[in-house]
Amino acid sequence: MTTMFDRRSLLGGGAAAAIALWIGAAEAGEGGPRPKAPFQLADAEWRKRLSPQAYAVLRQAATERAFTSPLNKEKRRGTFICAGCDQKLFDSRTKYESHTGWPSFWRPLPKAIGTSIDRDIGVARTEVHCARCGGHLGHVFNDGPMPTGLRYCMNGVAMKFVAA
Asked: Buried (b) or exposed (e) across 32-51, using 16+ Cβ within 10 A?
């Protein structure tokens, strides 16, 4: 038996699937609130301190366009720090070329970051945020190099580089 689909059936089925995904994501929630960050500013102060793009990433969990960060090409020895509060985040020796378009690292500095569950796109991902100011940095994935096997995929605009 051959099943035939018309455009209305396909569109209706696609809309139903999208609604089910959206409801599932809404019911799943954000994985609990982040702990209160020790370094806090009023929203107006964050807007003064950060560029519009850095504000969108750090304070609203946006994602910068892939392959746009100058930090992708940064090869010098030094430390990557939070653009919001200057918290030391990553040693340059843990940076590697992931070919994803964002600066990637296999390990953060001790006590530099926090994580939470992010379901904004309908699937659970581990969000990475600055332990000091709570700013969104990116996500961590289980497809990185050894010794950790992790890929901390960070938004370059959320960080600054300080050469050693």
From this structure: eeeeebeeebeeeebeeebe
Report CA torsion sign: 86, 134, 36, 126: negative
Pick the closest to residue 112 from 136, 82, 83, 84 (CA basis). Answer: 82
Predicted confidence (pLDDT) per residue in 45-84, tens digit = 999 999 999 999 999 999 999 999 999 999 999 999 999 9
Closest CA to 137 of 121, 158, 119: 158
Is 82 among the residues known to form the active site?
no
Domains and CATH numbers, the chain: 32-163 (2.170.150.20)
DSSP states of 127-142: EEEETTT--EEEEEES
Q: Cα angle at 60 between 130 and 141, to 5 degrees?
A: 55
How many helices (DSSP H) and strands (DSSP E) are in the chain? Answer: 3, 9
Q: In 3-state terms, the chain is what percent helix, strand and coil (to 5)?
A: 30, 25, 45
